Amino acid sequence: MHPKLFKSTMLNLLRHTLLVVSLFLISLIGWAQSVKPKVYIDPRGTRYTPQQFDSIQTASRGKPIAQMDVIHKENETQIIFEVLADNPVDQFKAKWIGKQLPTFSLKDIQGNVYSNTSLKGKSIVINFWSTTCGPCIEEMPLLSDLMAKYTGKNIVFIAPAPESAGRIQKILSKRRFTYTVLPQAQGLISALAVEGYPSHFVISSTGVIEDIYTGLSSNSQTNKAMLDNRLITAIDKVLESN
């Protein structure tokens, strides 16, 4: 082989080798960074291992944990967190339970008016829902069965939703739902500051909000939707007090 050709070949081989080594080192550094141990740090600066943090989550019993920041150090990833004092759902319930249901007047799909005045003296179960809420649609048959249990009782089951009657009817054509649906109910939804669907309100015959339940419950074994027994208990309680 000609000396110049040999020299050129060796230089190319060296460049290729250096490139491969560089790529390997870069990937090694990236891998090392990705497996850096995580440490959780609270506002007081106390450090917790992932296992200790799991214990904190369990002990918090539903209180929200806010992740404030993530800091990548050379030897660890620091996750700054804070356990909030109150669950927002608990705050919402505390704000409204024991208060009068705000004044409202809404029409159902057939044009019948439902209001505080028309429902005076009756207990009310309200299901706030939306056509875009999967759990709301999933629980419709369960709520229909619930309503059937109280046939002939002094209680009304209504389901306000923010959407138009036309949009709602597309959903109802495919689902069994016997609650009285009240379209375009954004006024009442805003008055109560309802942020999550489904939300269930149980109202006494005097118009007082007695209980509130949010979300959809599920069977821990089958993972199928189920009614919250506390909702049934609350309904029975307001009927007993009539």
From TrEMBL:
<protein>
    <submittedName>
        <fullName>TlpA family protein disulfide reductase</fullName>
    </submittedName>
</protein>
<dbReference type="Pfam" id="PF00578">
    <property type="entry name" value="AhpC-TSA"/>
</dbReference>
<dbReference type="InterPro" id="IPR013766">
    <property type="entry name" value="Thioredoxin_domain"/>
</dbReference>
<dbReference type="InterPro" id="IPR050553">
    <property type="entry name" value="Thioredoxin_ResA/DsbE_sf"/>
</dbReference>
<feature type="domain" description="Thioredoxin">
    <location>
        <begin position="95"/>
        <end position="232"/>
    </location>
</feature>
<dbReference type="InterPro" id="IPR036249">
    <property type="entry name" value="Thioredoxin-like_sf"/>
</dbReference>
<dbReference type="InterPro" id="IPR000866">
    <property type="entry name" value="AhpC/TSA"/>
</dbReference>
